[in-house]
Amino acid sequence: MEQKQLREFCELSEDCEALMKMAFERMGLTARSYDRILRVARTIADLDGAESISPNHLAEAIQYRTYAFRELGGEIQE
């Protein structure tokens, strides 16, 4: 998915934006990880049959990112 498609199909609600901001502040994520999380959240929403990404979809995507990061030996900032 390219940037244009991300903007079109991965639009976030205010609740999702707040969740993403909190995750980035606490976990010290990068802009690249933002796109990856959005792609995973969109896939989760698609599998759930949802038209848009919900906070639950986004939280699950963030959780997968956190798990992968820890598996690679990284530390999450508290």
What's the rounded overall pLDDT mean?
84
Name the structural class. mainly alpha
Tell me the distance between the termini.
31 Å
Residue fraction in strands? under 5%
Estimated radius of gyration: 12 Å
Helix content: over 70%
Task: Note the main sheet.
Answer: none
Q: Helix and strand string, N-terminal first?
A: HHHH
Question: How many DSSP-defined strands?
Answer: 0
Shape: globular
Notes on the protein architecture:
With 78 residues, the chain is mostly helical. It has a domain at 31-72. The protein has four helices and no strands. It has helices at residues 3-9, 14-27, 31-47, 55-71. Helix 2 (14-27) packs parallel to helix 4 and helix 3 crosses helix 4.
TL;DR?
With 78 residues, the chain is mostly helical. It has helices at 3-9, 14-27, 31-47, 55-71. It has a domain at 31-72.
Write the SSE topology.
Layout: H1 3-9, H2 14-27, H3 31-47, H4 55-71
Short descriptors:
globular, 78 residues, 4 helices, mainly alpha
